[in-house]
């Protein structure tokens, strides 16, 4: 199914926020080392919940999440960060009262000794963050915030990162920029799981993608194949899409 | 299934098209949060006695539009009328009294009231709800009538056996049902449902759909936010598509299916296909 | 240690004048906090304006009846002035504003600026003669064995528990009416109530005012018993006593304030007796003096309040089902 | 844990005097000018104990007054400033109240108020305004020091801690024990302050671990937490009363200082020292919050706890540190307060509403706002006495608090709740 050595595996994950209401009803997922995996699906399919469950922000009720064979289900988020997993939430993904540089510093909370080296790497990827380093993050535009959020997650020199809808709320030009950077980050050796609403663009850059529906795996396959799969369109637009 | 008269079939499929008998007319409503434009609806009319679905990707501004129209949020700019009466600046509870009632995406059951009390709270024209009326008013016969009505409604929604339980002890799906039944106790002309089907099992979805159709058959106007396209297709007379705060398309469900703007809004643009 | 005496003293406190006064005060707070969910930390201000309203009226030659009306009116006005700007604030801010407003009012009343009316820190005395002159009970002690009260106390107790009964009846009528149901709905979820067409702000204001008027009655009753009002009686501690009484009895329960107050005063007196005995018998190895008993009692009061709020937020007899819902 | 603390403090408690009879407090009011003495008539003096009024009297034509008291003990004797005739004023405007008049059995205790010509006649307006400003800054420094912790703790946990004022008292009282030659080592107060601040800081940490963290894990609601903090405030306050007794007592050092003149302003050296020392401490706190990793992490948790956790910050450890730092600062504020005035069992509780005023003025949750708010409240309180009676000065701060909440609830430095 994948040519990559698996770094993260989730098996039969069941999770939810409210007692008795499961959002994920058994999701399987494999992320290979150095792979960019997209997760798409209609609203309410449980895409964001899946990455939150992997990152320990939503309780995994059954099933298991393995990171290089180690069971990391329900570990506290900061312990996952220590194991080289980064996470960029969809909203409120920067500390708006802190400056850009302080935001980056918080990304490197656990390993301050590699600050200079990582700062240079992140600045190279997002030169804008160097220009704005003393600005409060609350004053950044939507696109700039997304760059900062990704930059913050990369400061730890993670082995893999989880991105929750990085293109949400951005202009098409900014979306393009974000997707370009995501691909670039992956090519530099970081494995990525990316939840996206913008399915087409996501599928264009992903190595592989999972399509979720009602908290379950619906389809999976290489990004380009899914892109033209009528079943995917069907999922999004239902019978509306069939007339197309 | 869409209503047989289908008075809307002859309308143009352009955003903001005027309706023959609009109950709700929205003009140029704008709401920004900081620099972000959440809602910017130039023109939108809702036809009386129909089911109108409001769809659109995450963050399109659907719930914000609901909040604005029902007085739970204030726009920077705009104007809207219910049955010809202006609603700008009218507090939310008065909007409800004028006949437009909403539900919430995260159900708001009144946990430490019983199911029956939840229903009775919503009942209209209870003189006992005023302070003096409660103390000295003759509210008991009204209460008895409301109770009969509430029990009938609970029975219809399959909650009558729970009437004396605390609403907090209901399951998630039952709360959804209760919230809808409760909204109906206000006897609204327009009922606005925010994702009534979210987090509900498929069997219950069918029940809810049945209830929503029944509302239209009772002559009520329903506006609802939904993300399951099959549901939208099955039940709505008219579909309004919101993306980045603006109405990008509207028309009968079949028309929406063939609209490229809608598909792009949902799936994202192909690379290079910038508008 | 004389356990019988301790128990009798505690029993006397449980049915005595302070228990009636705090039951009354807690009924008002229960309407605001228990039924409507308002975190009013300035309840003592209502008690103060009630007491002062009556005392000043009588001091200026009015009758006590007129004084009662003035006291209630003042409390209603206070509720209005306090409520209109503050009822839209979040619970913690509301708590801070109301406690501050109560203190501002106390400072104003004790100031020399207000002295021509309030008599400053000295307060007003001997304004309830009219009430005591009406006492039909012959001089003597009433009760069984050591469980006895003199005729003056009995007369005040009749007034106090009579007021408690009347106000409870009023609350029974009010809270079982659709009005009462609506304020409970507001306590559960303001937005839901708004969406159903309820004027949430109006109901909260009514609840604050009516609860305040009941608090004013409690203040008047305490003042009548002591024949004395001084500003420094009305410190925030009184509000917190009332909160504890409400929580013991169960917030939002009709009879809760009565049982809560009786239990509160029973325990308070009982602890006092036990500790006095313990100090006299030197059970504490000489760590504590007799003068420490008061403070220790207050510290234990704090422990009790914490314990209740953590383990029994629905009151000592609160229903299990409600607690489960509360925990969600 | 708390009971153990109470028991510990109880070991070193001091008894109050027993009851007796025939005691009075008396005095003679005289205006002492450069060369003349004249009796002052018609001035009201009151005596209180534990907040209850004991009695009052008006000075006669010889300036004499006498008030019977129910027994031996500690009383508060107050001169009602408003009743002073024109041209007569207290030589020290802050000494209108004698908080610690101790009466022995059968004693006719004399209480003394020093009166002189009114400041308006004898002292320049500049001096009058300037010295009030200095007093205001000093009081503001104490409020600011005590407020920062409350605001920080609110920022990271969302709790409005009604027991925070009692941490202030605790700091003052613990320092008193180390300062006292009978009960502690008789250490100089500046040395005694060190263990006091450390112990209060430790107490803050214990509170977090033993009480607040478990309650947060249970998802206890905001209202319940506030009520719990009120319960805790009673435990601490009355525990202190048992251990320390009700009488106000000064530290051994700096209790009495003679006036000094600086830039034409009359003040005492310790006022300037408190202001200077506090500014240094607050600057260090500011540097800690902005320049260190841990301080930045505190602001990060305050800003968005979930994101902080996702960034690898151990949020519960940061909260623990915030409690330790916040409580320690409150303790330090208490020591300063004790040096400035005296140590009393309810000094912090009385300060609590002013602390609230300061944090809400500056913006709840922002440390710098609390500092700014503290100084504004302190100066506003003291300077207000230029235009309104002294007895209203606390009400001024509370009025600022109320108005601020109504006009701009997020405070001067706070930002509006983020929407969406």
What are the SSEs and their pairings?
The complex is a heterotetramer of chains A (244), B (275), C (328) and D (420).
Chain A: E1 6-15, E2 24-32, E3 36-40, H1 47-54, E4 60-67, E5 70-71, H2 77-82, E6 85-88, H3 100-107, H4 115-125, H5 127-131, H6 142-154, E7 160-164, H7 172-187, E8 191-195, H8 199-205, E9 208-213, E10 216-222, H9 223-227, H10 230-242
Parallel strand pairs in A: 3-8, 3-9, 6-7, 7-8
Antiparallel strand pairs in A: 1-2, 1-4, 4-5, 9-10
Helix pairs in contact in A: 3-6
Chain B: E1 22-33, E2 36-47, E3 51-55, H1 62-69, E4 77-82, E5 85-86, H2 92-97, E6 100-102, H3 115-122, H4 131-136, H5 140-156, H6 172-185, E7 190-194, H7 202-217, E8 221-225, H8 229-235, E9 238-243, E10 246-251, H9 253-257, H10 260-267
Parallel strand pairs in B: 3-8, 3-9, 6-7, 7-8
Antiparallel strand pairs in B: 1-2, 1-4, 4-5, 9-10
Chain C: H1 3-15, H2 17-35, H3 43-59, H4 64-86, H5 91-110, H6 115-118, E1 124-125, H7 129-133, E2 141-144, E3 147-150, H8 151-175, H9 178-188, H10 190-195, H11 200-226, E4 228-229, H12 236-249, H13 256-280, H14 293-311, H15 320-327
Antiparallel strand pairs in C: 1-4, 2-3
Helix pairs in contact in C: 1-13, 2-8, 2-11, 2-12, 2-13, 3-4, 3-5, 3-11, 4-11, 8-11, 9-11, 12-13, 13-14
Can you describe what's shown?
The complex is a heterotetramer of chains A (244), B (275), C (328) and D (420). With 244 residues, chain A is an alpha/beta fold. Chain A has 10 helices and 10 strands. Chain A has one domain: Rossmann fold. In chain A, the strands form 2 sheets. A 6-stranded mixed beta sheet of chain A has the order 6-7-8-3-9-10, with helices on both faces. Chain B is of the alpha/beta class. Chain B has 2 domains: 1-109 and 189-275, Rossmann fold (3-Layer(aba) Sandwich), CATH 3.40.50.300; 112-169, no CATH class. Chain B contains 10 helices and 10 strands. In chain B, strands 6-7-8-3-9-10 form a 6-stranded mixed beta sheet, with helices on both faces. In chain B, strand 9 and strand 10 form a beta hairpin. In chain B, helix 5 crosses helix 6 (172-185). Chain B is globular and about 60 Å long. Chain C has 328 residues and is mainly alpha-helical. Chain C has a single domain, classed as ABC transporter involved in vitamin B12 uptake, BtuC (Orthogonal Bundle). Chain C has helices at residues 3-15, 17-35, 43-59, 64-86, 91-110, 115-118, 129-133, 151-175, 178-188, 190-195, 200-226, 236-249, 256-280, 293-311, 320-327; strands at 124-125, 141-144, 147-150, 228-229. In chain C, strands 1-4 form a two-stranded antiparallel sheet. The longest helix of chain C is centred in the middle third of the chain and has 27 residues, at 200-226. In chain C, 55% of the residues are buried. Chain D is of the alpha+beta class and 420 residues long. Chain D is built from 13 helices and 13 strands. In chain D, the strands form 5 sheets. Chain D has a 4-stranded antiparallel beta sheet with strand order 5-4-7-9, with no helix packed on it. Classes of the chains: A alpha/beta (244), B alpha/beta (275), C mainly alpha (328), D alpha+beta (420). Chains in contact: A-B, A-D, B-C, B-D, C-D.
